[in-house]
Amino acid sequence: MRFHVLTLFPDAFRDPLDYSMLAQALNRGLVSIDVTDIRDYSHDPHHTADDYQFGGGHGMVLKPEPVFEATEAALSGYSDSKRKAIPIILFTPQGELLTQRVVEELAQAPALAMICAHYAGIDNRVPEFLATREISLGDFVLTGGELPAMALIDAVSRLVPGVIGSPENVAEDSISSGLLQHPLYTRPADFRGMETPEVLLSGHHANIEKWRREQSLRRTLERRPDLLMSADLSADDLRYLESLGYVQPHKLD
Predict the structure, then answer these.
(1) Minimal CA–CA distance to 10: which of 116, 159, 156?
(2) Among 201, 33, 48, CA closest to 118
(3) CB atoms within 10 A of CB 159
């Protein structure tokens, strides 16, 4: 997977990429990250990338020219057909919410281009005529798109074969399975009187799997009941949820 980041602050991507599995993935060539400074494509001696709003208003607006030209330069090495298949993502609170489903969809692309906006916002011609997708981390405002870009890079990279130790680790993550993950325990079995559930020490794999599934269902019901609407639930799952007070919503015909 190849990531192209368009930003006013390229140094922001140096240290965060030097740690953990993402650093190993970069060193092994499983992913690559190209960071382009939008200011390099400005057209004045001061490398100005922002300007006042037409019509008045507080805050500066990121200009369209350097953003368009930086993005076009970053993707110039691809054939026309491949370039059309590369999502150009703009991070904005107005975009669709970043979910695991969106991450899995983006991971199928040949590459990703990510525009990191700043100031009061970005000239509307960027989302209207350049970006092909707008994404938000949630209903809150950040100072810029760099942190969302890092989050997306990390989330997508985990789905690249070889980055995580085994495909099972990814498949069993919270959200990836459609439910929240069950509780996890490791040594010591008894820590300060806080004991590991006995079933996990029993060696009885069928009972362990049953316990984990039920705990996953319980956590999802308590913390993210909205996920149950789209989860793949068996008859046993539904019976267990109903024993916890879950009422299955009626589906529209």
Answers:
(1) 116
(2) 48
(3) 18
Between CA 151 and CA 145 the distance in angstroms is 10
Residues in Cβ contact with 75 at an 8 Å cutoff, skipping those fewer than 6 apart: 4, 83, 86, 111, 113
CA distance 62 to 44: 15
- CB within 8 Å of 253: residues ≥ 6 apart: none
Other C-beta atoms lying within 10 Å of the C-beta of residue 176 = 17
What gap in Å lies between CA 130 and CA 110, rounded to an integer? 18
DSSP states along 45-59 = TT---EEPPTT--SS
Q: Are 158 and 170 in contact (CB under 8 A)?
A: yes
Between CA 219 and CA 244 the distance in angstroms is 11
Q: Per residue in 84-140, pLDDT tens? A: 999 999 999 899 999 999 999 999 999 999 999 987 889 999 999 999 999 999 999
- Give how far Cα 15 sits from Cα of 4, 32, 112, Å: 17, 15, 21
CB count in 10 Å sphere of residue 107: 15
pTM, 2 dp: 0.86
- For residues 187 and 149, the answer to whether their CB atoms sit within 8 Å is no
Three-class secondary structure of residue 148 per DSSP: helix
Task: Please give the domain boundaries of the chain with CATH numbers for all domains.
Answer: 2-157 (3.40.1280.10), 176-253 (1.10.1270.20)
Q: What is the pLDDT of residues 207-220, one digit of tens each?
A: 999 999 999 999 99
Question: Which residue type does 6 have?
Answer: L
By C-alpha distance, which of 104, 93, 102, 100 is closest to 136?
A: 93
> How long is the chain?
253
